[in-house]
Specification:
The chain has 513 residues and is mainly alpha-helical. It contains 17 helices and 2 strands.
């Protein structure tokens, strides 16, 4: 195929590649976040329910699905370095990353649609869920690792990386918020059919965006010596890179802590708004809160270059400020549960705004730190290992997702809210399409939720993340040592090596003669 020829560039990142790469993140993450945010709601409030299933069987099946997700996430996390190793070793004529990007997108789109449309009843659904979830995770890994490995390969300039990371984060946020904001409103009182339609739409957009990307983007020309070293890597060395590269090791630990903490509040999702504000208003209020999330994140992403380039704040200073803002905001979010009679929803949005604003800065800085750790690896060992490094990022993200699922399950169980989930699922199936009846019946059901139950649930998605964010800050503050000055020194040294290698290669024919 003509568009899949190996097209490379040297020097600055081509504008078309820059914009295609960053904008495509909007559609791929919309597809991912749809599954991440709403698959469990689909399971919890629609797929598992039924008038012939009692609460004990419902909890048993939901427990089984939780275990499946955790086990498969851990396995897939272990599988990520394997995928990274394969990408490092297999360089196609059409490029190092582009073939894997389109392969993963194509397979994942098919699996996503099947996962929402094939839903047998009872334990047959649990088995079916396990198969499809495994395939969904595996196929997305193929796309995810190759897609993210492109980012650090495009440029070694700190300001270019900051710009690319910011742009990509903005478009990812747009896709995430479009899904997170619209779906709850569309699905109110009609969750199952709505989720199925959205699965088709997001999957098609994901596939089309990745197809356009691989046809028209260019990959950065790889230094021959570095590429040869990467191709010589043995499988066991995928894991030893963390042992050798101390800065990568501490960054990976920070990512694990941060991903787990940042995903808990989002993972609470519809559960939080249903149980706190009722079934009728829950979806609409989640949409409004998602808008707050979107505004806070995009404002933070847009302001990041200002703080770095204009105010000249170092990564460490900015990370410290962002951590403090985030931790204080989560304290306020927890306090909200004790004052629901006097505080209003807008106050909750203010707390949420600053929490998401701080998390945005933390996330951007950690992404840049992991890219710098790749340069550090090349500086020390003459190996870049982009795919392997970003497979470790994916690994920690999936472990974090597993822990988030475990936290949500544990606090739903401790708060005694599973029985309500089961009854909502039963009503959804019984009165499918009759939105008014469902709202009326579920509203009666939720009147029995006690304040103590809500307090327990709030501890899970505010205090636990707060502790994780504090741990993230401590790891970065005391263990991460790559400053702006030391990174610039490394980049200059790497450039000198490349220039020397090129000069030696040019002199080689003369010596032979």
């Amino acid at each position: 195929m003509l568009g899949l020829r190996n097209r490379t560039f040297e020097g600055d990142v081509p504008k078309l590649t820059k914009w295609l790469y960053t904008t495509s993140g909007m559609f791929r993450d919309a597809a991912y976040q749809f599954v991440s945010l709403f698959l469990l709601s689909f399971v919890q409030f629609f797929a598992l329910g039924g008038s012939d299933i009692d609460i004990n069987e419902y909890v048993a099946m939901y427990t089984a699905i939780t275990i499946i997700i955790i086990v498969l996430r851990i396995w897939d996390g272990i599988n990520d370095p394997i995928m990274g190793f394969i990408i490092e070793k297999c360089h196609f004529k059409s490029g190092k990353y582009r073939p894997w990007i389109i392969l993963g997108a194509f397979l994942n789109s098919i699996v996503t649609i099947l996962m929402f449309w094939i839903t047998p009843s009872g334990w047959a659904y649990v088995a079916c869920f396990g198969v499809f979830y495994f395939l969904w995770d595996f196929t997305y890994t193929i796309n995810d690792i190759s897609f993210w490995a492109v980012l650090p390969s495009l440029s070694q300039k700190e300001e270019v990386r900051a710009n690319l990371t910011t742009l990509l984060s903005i478009f990812i946020s747009i896709g995430t918020f479009a899904v997170g904001g619209l779906v709850p409103v569309l699905a109110a009182g009609n969750q199952g059919p709505t989720y199925r339609i959205v699965a088709i739409v997001t999957s098609i957009l994901f596939l089309l965006s990745q197809l356009i990307l691989v046809i028209f983007m260019k990959e950065k020309k790889i230094d021959d010596n570095v590429e040869k070293n990467d191709e010589k890597i043995k499988f066991k060395e995928i894991f030893t890179v963390v042992a050798k590269n101390d800065q990568l090791r501490y960054t990976i630990i920070a990512i694990l802590l941060f991903y787990t903490g940042s995903s808990v509040l989002v993972g609470a999702g519809l559960n939080y708004f249903y149980f706190n504000f009722g079934y009728e208003q829950g979806g609409s209020l989640q949409t409004l809160f998602t808008v707050v999330y979107a505004v806070a994140t995009i404002v933070g992403q847009c302001l990041y270059p200002l703080f770095v380039n204009k105010l000249k704040l170092t990564k460490m200073k900015l990370f410290t400020i962002a951590s403090i803002v985030t931790i204080v905001s989560y304290v306020l979010l927890f306090s909200y549960v004790f004052y629901t009679d006097t505080l209003t929803f807008p106050i909750l949005c203010v707390y949420g705004f600053f929490a998401f604003f701080g998390q945005t800065f933390m996330s951007l800085i950690i992404y840049i730190m992991i890219q710098d750790s790749i340069d550090y690896n090349e500086y020390k060992f003459n190996e870049r290992r982009e795919s392997s490094t970003f497979s470790l990022r994916a690994f920690t993200a999936k472990i974090g997702s597993s822990l988030q699922q475990l936290i949500l399950y544990a606090f739903l169980l401790m708060a005694g809210l599973f029985s309500i989930s089961n009854e909502i699922a039963t009503l959804e199936r019984q009165f499918m399409g009759d939105r008014e009846t469902i709202i009326m019946e579920v509203t009666k059901l939720m009147e029995g939720i006690g304040h103590d139950q809500l307090v327990i649930f709030h501890i899970g998605f505010t205090i636990i993340p707060l502790i994780l964010f504090l741990a993230t800050f401590l790891v970065i503050r005391f263990k991460y040592k790559i400053t702006e000055e030391s990174h610039q020194m490394m980049v200059e040294e790497i450039a000198k090596r490349k220039a020397q290698n090129q000069a030696n290669e040019e002199e080689q024919p003369t010596v032979n003669e």
